[in-house]
Design a protein that fits this description.
378 residues; 38% helix
């Protein structure tokens, strides 16, 4: 008897070396495999032959390093494909329970038409909803169900527009077996991996500007001086933002290049697990909309038994905080959370892993998600 099938559409080939981004996809690919599914990743990449070759090589490396058995099909344009052929991809889609279309990345009408159940997965809440509401872009159309990791969408104080859709909410998953718990650290070394600006521009919506991580990080530039200890960011920041980088360093942040410490899935895992805790400053759009966003990176820390200090986006209304996961709004809040972890590092480490098991483990999260999206059974 053949296994049930799921296709996942998303932009992996476009970002060679972005191992954290790759892990976001791996949580779904590996997670669905654990549930017994045969999985196919659908991607595309344009540009020069060299760029396309680098993207294909990156997918091969990511899947090979992680042990994922997922097939993959990359559209190279002009009728050319790498990996699974277009014909086989269409056959897979026709037989699959669903296409999980991350941020609506798959736009090919023939592929979409072949899928029996099309599910939009919003992993960057605020952007697709506001683009749609403002008439800038509608990546939401053409799907049978809509899922967001903004678990508070629809709450009275959440400013995310729902665009007239019935949103299904879910936390992100983490494959616990891929992120085994580590011995507790001292809490002295806090790290994170992040981009200064990211792929999207700030959005003006209903007379308010929703900004990026850069706009929030400036508020916490002096946090290391306030809290003491070692604060390190593997930060993707452009040379044109040199003044901001200097300001962070002056405040006590140590900045390293993500490619130097976390450039492959294995290196990324070693970096996370070699830390004592995560310090996570969110994008302004996540903080200001109060949607409850939580980073997939933070879940990797939690699963590894590494406590997370995260700027509150409303997730404290959705998940227990105080042990293992600590929320902050101001530099003083963050400094107090750092002190709490250093006072009881083993207690917070154990609570972090337990929270990952109880709330974010892929078996539980993805089983619930499949049930809620009403997947068409094969």
């Amino acid at each position: 008897m053949s296994r049930p099938r799921i296709a996942v559409g998303g932009a992996l080939a476009q970002k060679p070396g972005a191992a954290g981004h790759a892990w976001q996809f791996l949580q779904y690919l590996l997670g669905f495999e654990r549930l017994g599914y045969e999985v196919l990743l659908l991607d595309r990449i344009d540009g020069s032959p060299a760029r396309q070759a680098a993207g294909v090589a990156w997918i091969e490396r990511v899947l090979g390093e992680s042990g994922a058995a997922a097939g993959w099909s990359v559209d190279l344009g002009r009728g050319r494909h790498a990996g699974v052929s277009r014909r086989r991809a269409l056959e897979f889609l026709a037989d699959a329970d669903l296409l999980l279309n991350v941020m609506g990345f798959v736009t090919d009408e023939e592929l979409l038409a072949a899928a029996r159940w099309r599910v939009f997965l919003d992993t960057d809440p605020g952007f697709p909803q506001m683009w749609c509401a403002l008439g800038l872009a509608d990546v939401l159309a053409g799907h049978d169900a809509h899922v967001t990791i903004a678990e508070r969408i629809g709450a009275e104080d959440c400013t995310l527009p729902d665009c007239g859709l019935d949103w299904i909410t879910t936390p992100q998953p983490v494959v616990l077996a891929a992120w085994p718990a580590q011995a507790p650290g001292s809490g002295a070394r806090l790290t994170s991996v992040a981009s200064w600006r990211g792929a999207y521009a700030p959005i003006e919506y209903e007379r308010r500007t929703y900004g990026l991580r850069a706009h929030q990080m400036r508020r916490f530039a002096a946090l290391p001086r306030l809290a003491g200890g070692e604060f390190e960011l593997a930060l993707d920041i452009h040379p044109s933002d040199a003044a901001d980088a200097a300001r962070l360093r002056a405040g006590g942040w140590r900045l390293v290049a993500p490619a130097a410490v976390a450039g492959t899935p294995a290196e990324y895992r070693r970096y996370v697990q070699g830390s004592d805790a995560e310090i996570m400053v969110a994008k302004g759009i996540y903080v200001d909309t109060r949607g409850g966003w939580m980073s997939e990176r933070s879940l990797c820390y939690l699963a590894s038994g590494r406590p997370v200090l995260a700027q509150d986006t409303g997730f404290s209304d959705c998940h227990p905080v105080g042990e293992g996961l600590l929320a902050f709004a101001t530099p003083d809040d963050a400094a107090a959370a750092v002190e709490a972890i250093r006072a009881h590092p083993a207690q917070h480490a154990a609570a972090a892993r337990e929270l990952a098991f109880e709330r974010f483990g892929s078996d539980r999260v993805l089983s619930r998600l499949l049930d809620r999206v009403g997947a068409v059974a094969a």
